[in-house]
Amino acid sequence: MIKLFEFTGRPFISIAEEFGRIMLLFLSASSWAFRPPFRFRIVFKQMESVGVNSVIVVLITAISSGMVLALQSYYGFRMFGGESLVGATVALSLTREIGPVFTALMVTGRAGSAMAAELGTMRVKEQIDALYAMSVNPVQFLIMPRIIAGILMLPILTILADFVGIIGGYFVGVELLNINSGIFMARIFEMVKLNDIVNGLIKSACFGLILSLVGCYKGFYTVGGAEGVGKAATQAVVISTVSIFIGDFFLTAVMF
Amino acid sequence: MIRLIKVCKSFGKQKVLVDLDLDIPPEKTTVILGQSGSGKSVILKHIIALMNPDSGQILVNGTDITRLNDKELNEIRKNFGMLFQDAALFDSMTVGENVAFPLKEHTRLSQKQIKTIVEEKLMQVGLKDVTQKMPAELSGGMRKRVGLARAIALDPKIILFDEPITGLDPIMSDAIDNLIIQTQQHTKATCVVITHNIESTFKIAHRIAILYEGKIVECGTPPEIEISAHPFVQRFINRKTKDSNCG
User: ipTM of the assembly?
Assistant: First the structure.
């Protein structure tokens, strides 16, 4: 009986331990954010890596999502003559859910995995030890700038995704499905509140924190050479993705 | 002066260092010799506090570094330079940026002064016109030289070398050995070298410490080591296995 408890309990203890270590890393990185030397240059470089380099992939995802949303909602609304609601549906879905979540997922796949792989490689090639040996704290030098970049860039990417997604929806709704342009836009302005956009952006900042923290954590504590780096990158994507979905539920429940 | 007193370190059930005692004299080159996987690098990482012992003391100029906090450790580490096994150069930085890194972090020198020091240190290790190259463009020997230039950038009092000639051809190994000798003579630093290469050891060492089964079983000058009666030391320096001795 005890062995059964041990067997079933071990994964939960392991998850709790890992969560605790991630939180400790977050606290350590947070404390370094307010202590000199302030590494603005590295933060800007990471903002480029996380944000600017993800723009294309985020835009393609957003425009496709907006177009598909418009198509699907049109077929649904047509059944009871509610085609005029397509614009508002697309805009609300994008600003509240699809914009923040899809942006976070795309950045996780691109930048989150890259963070884990880069820090993992630095770990196995003793470059992190070299930082310690040169009296430079690697949490401040490597992790803190990536977390700040994640938190700052995700909302900016989400704004772009929302905007481009609505344009995609407009193109399908107005140009292809012949919904009246004025009605399409009027419904959007009527139903989308500032709160929807702001809460979506708060969500995306939270997702930015999750994906950068998990990516850094997995990379920073990589063991086992090249194989370990591969595992770290994969686990970073899987854990970030699952955490983003779980986090999304709780944030939605609290905010909307 | 570096002293390790009764240092113990285990990884899981495997005991790597067992009540290890070692004195490393100042301004000399001490080579720690031992078999692969015997824990030589673990000793080096303890000396610069990249690892903490399970028990025991590590004294650097009289300060027990096992009791220091991060801030105090950072101050102590400024006295150290370390050449890692694969040089541990930062891939995203050029050679020049790698060597300049400790200078930018710990001094208030101008860009021009840093550039001058970087070129001087690279010249010291026999490299020129490489400042704009990326580490990936360098050969193994060149990477080690750049690693050494970075290690000595702040003119440290203690320089640690982790397997400096592993993976290099005999000619490049000899060049790196000469570089270690020149660097020690030029800087008068305390050098600690980890290796399992006998020829290199007898060329560069003022003192040799032999690590076996987690302890230093013999420590002395090269002539003293050569006449050591310890069976492992004799087997090791004469490159004989246990079986060949029995035969």
Answer: 0.90
